């Protein structure tokens, strides 16, 4: 095993490993008998780079391993930045993953697990709570209803459909045989720090991410079921072969009969449609693209061109499952995701740090706890002042 372990460890450290080799290494490193090999390879990798200063103080490696095995067990995973791969039960391998990540991107676990749970007192003047179940419903007459502040039960009648807030906090459109009227157009929108679940009149479920919207009729009639979205929305479409379900966003259209898929269409140059099951047809003008499960169509608005990739759908759906998931994500994009969810402004002080992040963090924790984990890289520091986060390069 030792030679195979050394080979896999070197490959991962040099970022030349395949996904299969990464998974194999995670399985090996999780075995109790691998502890000695872990210490040995940590020593070898750093010595082979001829570092002038060992980044780990005397005894730190032993403390890192002990801390990882004790602190980063599944019950403590909520604030841990760890690699994620679909073929692994990553909770089982959290401790091992933290150690490997410490080597590959310089997160020194010994330092991070011994800091306070919050940022230093003088760096937090007002912590920020995470987002939650918040949305605004705009009726056909322009009236707006704040959904997070209303009681459960029937809210309003829209044509032949009753609008009902369910006990689980979601909104449902329920056909009402005792009422009549032409279908009306309603719009649900989520603010920064909001997400919401909607059940459309046909039983289709739509989950809106933060800063997103969906416009839809209160009853589906005619030859199709058509809705319009902005931002990011996940759909579980009720099957109806006679009435295709059509989603429009920007200059694109997605057509399905019944399937699960996710559309990310924030205002930028890339629209991303990811298929989880079934099939979808995407069209823009005379350009068309069919997707298979596990595929993602990335449409470049400027170039008017599709690019289809095979993706890990668990990664794409991390937001719906209550997670931030970063995969070599640039700092700007990380802070954009945080600004949307925590409803904060981000200000860069001095030279912007050139950093990428890989890992996951739960979305139901306070902002200071998220920033603490990012600070553990050693290359960045944050200050929270009210609803503003100041980002600075850490030169220490």
Automatic annotation (TrEMBL):
Is Transmembrane among the key words of this record? yes
The source's domain of life comes to Bacteria
Q: Any transmembrane segments, and where?
A: 90-110
Q: Which UniProt keywords apply?
A: Membrane, Transmembrane, Transmembrane helix
Q: Where is the FecR protein domain?
A: 187-281
Query: Known Gene3D superfamilies for this protein?
Result: 2.60.120.1440, 3.55.50.30
Q: Which residues form the Protein FecR C-terminal domain?
A: 324-391
Q: Which Pfam families match?
A: FecR, FecR_C
Q: Know the name of this protein?
A: Ferric-dicitrate binding protein FerR (Iron transport regulator)
